[in-house]
Amino acid sequence: MRELLFLAHRIPYPPDKGDKIRSFHLLQHLARRYTVHLGAFIDDPRDWEHVDKVQKMCGETCFVALHAARAKLRSLAGFVTGEPLTLRYYRSARLMRWVADLLGSHRIERALVFSSAMAQYLEGVSADGIRRVLDFVDLDSDKWRQYSRSKRGPMRWLYRREAEKLFELERRYAAAFDASLFVSEAESRLFTTLAPEAAGRASVVENGVDTEYFSPQRVYSSPYGADESVMVFTGAMDYWANVDAVAWFAREVFPRVLSNCPQARFYVVGARPAREVRDLARLPGVRVTGAVPDVRPYLAHARAAVAPLRIARGVQNKVLEAMAMARPVVASSQAVDGLRPCPELLEWTADAPETSAQLLLKLLREPTPPALGEALRAHVFRHYSWPENLARVEAIIEGEAPARSPARAEVLP
Fold this sequence. Notes:
The chain is of the alpha/beta class. It has 18 helices and twelve strands. The strands form two sheets. The protein has a seven-stranded parallel sheet, sandwiched between helices. Strands 10-9-8-11-12 form a five-stranded parallel sheet, sandwiched between helices.
């Protein structure tokens, strides 16, 4: 088999958060067609237990422990060198040596780099004859720019600096690599508008959803109380954008719902809840579960999913998974910005607390029309198929990059 180097800023397993869902499906698909040599960081000590499973899909591997406190200290050198702090945060001499040794001892013809921070490992080594593809995953520079708007004083300056330095780096890498991948048309347009020289090498490869796994036809026991009318948020709860979203929703939107519907409950479902998230459980009607073995029952028995993100980039898997489960989603415009236009989703999109509360009260008081759930699921099946999107990645890696396949109209049961 041909050999491919895959570099990721986080081990691609388990697929329990946005970027790891994408990287896992990429690895799984590519491992059937190439001998994949994987280099990745591990930032969660619990993920070391999954190394054996990942190694079975790969050829050579190199996993490097990433300790957040040490990495933050290391990143401060960026102030001296003029680099983005992110670059130093993900810099490892051990991983750099492993990449150089691998390229010297194996016939690597293809390389997929997952996130711009990992592209540095193919800058300082000889990569002649290797077709290099960079998956930006999310446009990190714009995410830092969004963060800066919510901060004041020195932190605003720091985040704005990181946004500017990262964009310079992203632009340089996009020019050096053979192809760049973005998760949505919106991300691609944003980047190529600011870096028009990258337009000819930019491709959109959207995320996918396992519509058989996230199926409304499966039977799930309800995790809720019999008299509860639930709206649910799902996601990794140590991620800043998610923390900001649920804190804002719990304080600005949910009280308006609860005052009109006493049986309403807001469930925050996701692993590693930050202290600010745990503290929300003190508020009337708010429940914080922490990690759960299966998120599907929480979606299946909720009256609505919510995605009140105020800081967002790329495609929100939490929205797609709820849609695949045929659940209505009340989302912010930021949360749906990266998705293909869907009238049945846009109808329930709102940013103002009053409007969001009104939409949720409507869903709590009236049964969800079956046609709404069917239309949401059909949209996911039509546009977010893993097999089709992964085949496109493979074509781009091979330099073929076909046009998108026509949208499908069928609906999975």
